[in-house]
Amino acid sequence: MNVCSILYGDRPDNVKGGSGTGITLWKLSTELVNQGCSVYIVHNRGHGPNSPKESEVNGVHFYGVGTSFFSIPSRLPFSLSTLNMLKKIDKRFNIDVFAFHGACSTPNVPSFRRYTSKPLVYHEYGATPLLLKNVYLRVSPPKTLIRLTLDSALEYLALKYVDKLIVASPLTKREFQKYYSYPEERIDVVPLGQDLFERHAHKLLTDKKNIIQREKQLLFVGNDWHRKGVKYLFLALKEVLKEVSDVTLNITGPPQEPFISMAEKLNLKNHIKYIGNVNEETLARFYNECDVFVLPSFHEGFSNTIIEAMAFGKPVITTPIAGYPVIENRKEGFLVSPGDFKTLASFIIKLLDDKVIYQEMSKNATEKAKKYTWKESAKKILEVYNNLVILSEKGNSAK
Question: Quick one: pLDDT at residue 229?
Answer without folding.
Answer: 94
